Amino acid sequence: MLNILSWIVLGLVSGAIAKAIYPGTQGGGFITTTVLGIIGAFLGGSLYSFLTTGALQLAGAGFSIPGFIIAIIGALIAIFLWGLVARRA
To answer: Where is it located (predicted)?
Structure first.
């Protein structure tokens, strides 16, 4: 249970920072930002794991400064992809 709460906090922080960095306006509120941040943390962690080990595995970013940077980059990618999906709908 504590691990899930930690991922929600990491997702909230990384999603909020990514939303502030991302140019333009994005739709969605608190819930969307949190979900995109959590997805971004896993996306960034998995992408980092793939680039460093060559193995594709589901991994979240760690709780460190590099982990937060990876989570923010993943959240930026998630916001970009969400923008593509939301425009088509």
So the answer is: Cell membrane
Q: Using an 8 Å Cβ cutoff, are 39 and 78 in contact?
A: yes
Whether 28 and 36 have beta carbons less than 8 Å apart is answered as yes
pLDDT tens readout for residues 76-87: 888 888 888 877
pLDDT of residue 49 exceeding 70, the answer is yes
Among residues 66, 11, 65, the alpha carbon closest in space to that of 42 is found at 11
What is the per-residue pLDDT for 89?
A: 57
Model confidence, pTM: 0.76
How many other C-beta atoms are found inside a 10 Å radius of the C-beta of residue 23? 5
C-alpha neighbours within 13 Å on the C-beta side of residue 16: 7
CA 32, 38, 41, 42 torsion-angle sign:
negative
